[in-house]
Amino acid sequence: MLHLKSFTFNPFSENTYIIFNDDREAFLIDPGNFGEEETKKLHEFIEDNKLIIKNILLTHAHIDHVLGLQSAYDQFRVPVLLHATEKEILDRNPMDANRFGFFFKPFEGEIQFIAENDTLHLGNDIFKILFVPGHSPGHIAFHNEAQKLLISGDVLFEGSIGRTDLYKGNHEQLIDSIQTKLFVLDDNTRVYSGHGNSTTIGFEKSHNPFLKR
After folding, report:
1. What are the pLDDT digits (tens) for 115-168?
2. Contact status, residue 151 vs residue 142, Cβ threshold 8 Å
3. Judging by DSSP bridges, how do beta strands 156-157 and 160-161 pair with one another?
4. What single DSSP character describes residue 135?
5. 107 — alpha (psi -120 to 50), left (phi > 0) or beta?
6. Distance of alpha carbon 36 from its chain centroid, rounded?
7. Who's near 104: CB < 8 A, 6+ residues apart?
8. CA of 9: how far to CAs of 56, 72, 82, 90, 111, in Å?
9. Which of 26, 124, 160, 186 qualifies as a FRET site for 192, CA 20 to 30 Å off?
10. pLDDT tens across 42-78, in order?
11. Of the CATH numbers 3.60.15.10, 3.10.270.10, 3.30.160.390, 1.10.443.10, which one belongs to the domain with range 3-207?
């Protein structure tokens, strides 16, 4: 059985997730921890629960989702998995940080690229990769069909959708990603977004004002 722990980190109120199984194997997703206090909170949860981080996963590489990436990599020394198209966004983060008035070093660590229809295994639990660009050019989501669980990043929110006014954002592409990749999932699928509360596919199909047909 899968278990999920969420943290809301950094000035952007970004959601960082840890998914783990009964054998304590875990994925760390979108580490946005910023500063010593948030980093300590994240690492203490991992240590207290004796979790074994198998990989660090990125839905996308906007700076609010990777503020803790280097510290996570330095601590756990496991590959960082992201879509190849998103590498450009990761590489832009020092420049983006400068716009917000702080310094951010380029990421240094092992990166592996994953693509649509790839599968990730956490013990016997399987996650399918969905390619859902629009908010960011290489955005992906992680779907576990057995437990009806989706880590959607900044594609779909409770009552809203991801912004598309950032570098290489595309509104029409985002809407198409949601309609063709997410809204075909079971209505009871629980959606864990990059910001805000969780929701379900069924609720958003019926109530999301940005997606009314």
Report:
1. 999 999 999 999 999 999 999 999 999 999 999 999 999 999 999 999 999 999
2. yes
3. antiparallel
4. S
5. beta
6. 21
7. 63, 67, 93, 94, 96, 97, 98
8. 16, 14, 20, 19, 23
9. 124
10. 999 999 999 999 999 999 999 999 999 999 999 999 9
11. 3.60.15.10
CA distance 134 to 198: 20
Please name which of 128, 134, 164 lies closest in space to residue 146, comparing C-alpha atoms: 128
* SS3 call for 111: strand
Residue that has been written with the tokens 């580490």 in this structure: 31
